[in-house]
Amino acid sequence: MNQKLKTSIAFAKKLFTTGAISETSRAVEIEICKFIPTDRDVVIVEYGMGHGNITREILKNITPNSKVYAFEVMEDFCEHVRNTIKDDRLIVVNDGAENVKNHVKGPVHGVIASIPFSFFSKEKALGIIQDSYDILEDGMYYNQALYTKHNFKKFQQIFDDCTMRKISSKIPAEYLYDCRKVVR
Ligand SMILES: C[S@@+](CC[C@H](N)C(=O)[O-])C[C@H]1O[C@@H](n2cnc3c(N)ncnc32)[C@H](O)[C@@H]1O
């Protein structure tokens, strides 16, 4: 059985935690990393690492002295990534995005997320977005991949500049929210 199929089965078994039955598309992996600064050392936070497909793309984009804190609630997904991605820049955090401030003090230079917001309460969702805003350096982005447009308003409530892009029209469609902190 190939790895993509194994990942799909692992996601489907925990559908109410993962919110997906397969990994995000290659187009999302590339596009979600578009705003990561590549010209200096940075700290990037990832929410919803899964089996590490986007994590690998983040690591490709950052400098040798940068760091990635990758949050994932599923212990076995963390174990999988620890066994398959050997990179000193990666810190796997087996905890929820809602606890980001317990692990990362900031400032951070990008938040890259594919967590299933549609399964979160409004309070939990807004808490994650606000905490992310607080730890981001001015001018930096929170980029969120989702299968729905419906959570965009929550990001607009907190972030200064937000745009939404449709990345693929496959079913379900994939959207990227690009949200920038701009302290005026
Ligand atoms: C849609 S999958 C995305 C996985 C992978 N990054 C991708 O692009 O295919 C969402 C992931 O978020 C994880 N997750 C769910 N709630 C979370 C939370 N509160 N904090 C961190 N990760 C969470 C799930 O276990 C799952 O691995």
CATH architecture: 3-Layer(aba) Sandwich
- So, the CATH homologous superfamily? Vaccinia Virus protein VP39
Which structural class fits the helix and strand makeup?
alpha/beta
Helix proportion of residues, in percent?
25-40%
In total, the number of domains comes to 1
Q: What is the strand content?
A: 15-25%
CATH class: Alpha Beta
Give the overall silhouette. Answer: globular
Quaternary state reads: single chain
Return the average pLDDT rounded to an integer: 96
Describe the overall structure.
The structure is a single chain. By secondary structure, this protein is an alpha/beta fold. It has one domain: Vaccinia Virus protein VP39 (Rossmann fold, 3-Layer(aba) Sandwich). Helices cover 35% and strands 21% of the residues. It has 8 helices and 7 strands. Strands 3-2-1-4-5-7-6 form a 7-stranded mixed beta sheet, with helices on both faces. The longest helix has 14 residues, at 122-135. It starts with a helix and ends with a strand. It binds S-adenosylmethionine (SAM). The site of S-adenosylmethionine has 23 residues, from α2 and α4.
Secondary structure layout plus pairing:
Layout: H1 3-13, H2 15-18, H3 26-31, E1 43-47, H4 53-61, E2 67-71, H5 75-84, E3 90-93, H6 100-103, E4 111-113, H7 122-135, E5 141-146, H8 152-158, E6 161-168, E7 174-180
Parallel strand pairs: 1-2, 1-4, 2-3, 4-5
Antiparallel strand pairs: 5-7, 6-7
S-adenosylmethionine binds next to helix 2 and helix 4.
